[in-house]
Amino acid sequence: MANIDIRLLRYFIAVAETGHMTRAAERLGIGQPPLSQQIRVLETQLGVTLFDRLPRGMALTDAGQAFLGDAYDVVRKLDQAVDDVRRVAAGVKGRLAVGFTSSSALHPFVPAVIRAFRADAPAVSLMLDESSTTELIDGLRDGQLDAVFIRQPLGDIAQIAIMPVLEEPMVLAVPSSHALALKGRAGKAAVPLTELSAEKLILYRRRTGQGLYDAIIAACHGAGFSPNIEQEAPRLPSTLSLVAAGLGVSIVPASLMRMQVEGIVYRPLTPAPRAPLHFAYREGVLAGPTARLLDHVRAAAKSESGG
After folding, report:
1. What is the DSSP secondary structure assignment for residue 56, as one 8-state letter?
2. Any idea where the HTH lysR-type domain is (predicted)?
3. Which of 3, 101, 282, 305, by CA, is between 20 and 30 Å from 109?
């Protein structure tokens, strides 16, 4: 049956269901003589008679009755396959692997986009992965990831499309008992970056968040001092835990203020280092769930910017 045109099966089913060549031809939108000829072609290919030709219609033979179930199965499976591939191309079915750095995931933009995509395409198998920027870019290039949210593109980004999404200021995180927290406790007045020259600074490891780490170091150098890095933590939440314990101060993206860690006061900085957020994916013909996710990212970025 591999060499049988699927159209012949559809013609056969129409005749079997109507029991009449003329009515089947009307349903199919073709002439009765061509339909009759195609049914004979199918019978010749199968080597059996599928219908008894009656004065007032067409009746299935035993062979035709047995063939009808198989014909239904083949047509149904083909229709399902066509529907599946179209749904994958439309981005509402298939698989999507999305990566993010710990700092980007803490910005409300990222979970909001993921929620919107999940609501829009619930049939897509969605896998999430948190890692460093370098590892995410490598995963993207290797095909293990389809799209990633990162703070700053690093390393070899050949054949990787980088889309700027937003930019936010970084703020000072200090223990609530610290002099910089007590000074102007309302948190309205910005702390000059130069006031951190003698402070013990706690940062997340450079290999984990190289983009933000380098931005902080560059801002300190721009303010005329080299930062005194007391400790490096593996993740942003652990960085804040060390600050809350009174071991030093840190500079973090403003979106982390939402975490409301007990024992920490956030203060604006001047000049404030900037923390960008980017969306990255492989260059080329973009389709399927990745393209649909990109649509949500663009819509959210436009809303974020007030556009």
Report:
1. T
2. 4-61
3. 282
Using one digit for the tens of pLDDT, what is the confidence trace for 204-215? 887 777 788 888
Angstrom distance (rounded) from CA 253 to CA 94: 34
| Burial group, residue 306, by CB count within 10 angstroms (0-12, 13-18, 19+) | exposed
280 is a domain residue: yes
Q: CA 149 to CA 209: how far, in whole Å?
A: 12
Domain of 281, CATH number, reads 3.40.190.10
- Secondary structure E strands in the chain: 51-54, 57-60, 94-100, 124-130, 147-150, 160-175, 191-192, 200-204, 228-233, 250-253, 264-270, 274-282
Among candidate residues 170, 147, 303, the one with its CA nearest the CA of residue 249: 170
| Alpha-carbon span 9 to 88, nearest angstrom | 26
What Rg, from alpha-carbon coordinates, does the chain have?
A: 32
184 and 216 belong to one structural domain: yes
pLDDT tens digit string along 114-150?
999 999 999 999 999 998 888 999 999 999 999 999 9
Token reading at 222: 């721009």
CA atoms of 249 and 229, how far apart (whole Å): 10
Prediction pTM value? 0.75
CATH code for the domain in which residue 67 is found: 1.10.10.10
Peptide bond preceding 273 in cis form (omega within 30 of 0):
no
Instruction: For strands 191-192 and 264-270, give the pairing.
Output: parallel
